[in-house]
Amino acid sequence: MATRIGLVPEHFSAPLVYGVENGFTNTLCIVGTGDMIKKLVAGELDIAICVTEGLVAGIGKNPDLRLFGTYVDSPLPWAASVATDAEYATLDDLAFGATFGISRPGSGSEVMARYAASAYEWTGKPKFNVLGDVHGLVKGIQEGAADAFLWERTTMQRHYDANEVRYLGTVRPPWPAFSFGATAQFIEANGDKITGLLGMFGNAQRQFMEDGVARAEFLKHKFGYGREEAERWAEYVRFNEQGSVDQDKIRKVIATLSKAGAMQELGADEVVLLPK
């Protein structure tokens, strides 16, 4: 039976989408991190590849879930975007209780706004308005429904080029961008399957990143990215071909998010469960 795998609808998923189109036999569900958490809990997904901070925060609210591997080692650069005519000049101008647009409660866009407020010691707590996907967020900023929102930097470039919103700065957390999550029951019952999948994921990542021409063409036709955007992304992204977990970095995520009020304090063993 094919494993049901959740992926974000962005270029970070490209190696696995490319792999499926070239013989990788699994069922992919492309949705945001918040939805993947819900689908894992409901038993509609077997494995989810989520934004790390969103997954860890989700585990804090759903104790049956666990993180079992790393998909992308490099940190995710979250770009802060504001209206083109906004008076904000730096990230710290958002420090006095700005309203952030978010895709949904518990999403990376919410978790990272909480992280920024805590890490940069902003005076006021951020407020939130649910505006949907990146297109809803852009529209919401244009219509004044929020002061700012956070989204992955490469994805936002086309919106900056079109002068739809303005780039304000980048929030870059000190931990891996994407991690694998599943229920503890699935991990405990499928150690060999998970180990095999991690090996296949690693091969797909390596093959995708080694062929620059094929990579650029795939990102263009499948995700709509220009060659310059694709090359900029390829320069900074580092996939984890072994799927290994740096537990010290996960402890940092937990400590940071609990301080920011995004989750309660947990031990690493309550978040991480490695397949056997």
TrEMBL record:
<feature type="domain" description="Ca3427-like PBP 2">
    <location>
        <begin position="78"/>
        <end position="170"/>
    </location>
</feature>
<dbReference type="InterPro" id="IPR054364">
    <property type="entry name" value="Ca3427-like_PBP2"/>
</dbReference>
<dbReference type="GO" id="GO:0042597">
    <property type="term" value="C:periplasmic space"/>
</dbReference>
<keyword id="KW-0732">Signal</keyword>
<dbReference type="Pfam" id="PF22384">
    <property type="entry name" value="PBP2_Ca3427_like"/>
</dbReference>
<comment type="similarity">
    <text>Belongs to the bacterial solute-binding protein SsuA/TauA family.</text>
</comment>
<protein>
    <recommendedName>
        <fullName>Ca3427-like PBP 2 domain-containing protein</fullName>
    </recommendedName>
</protein>
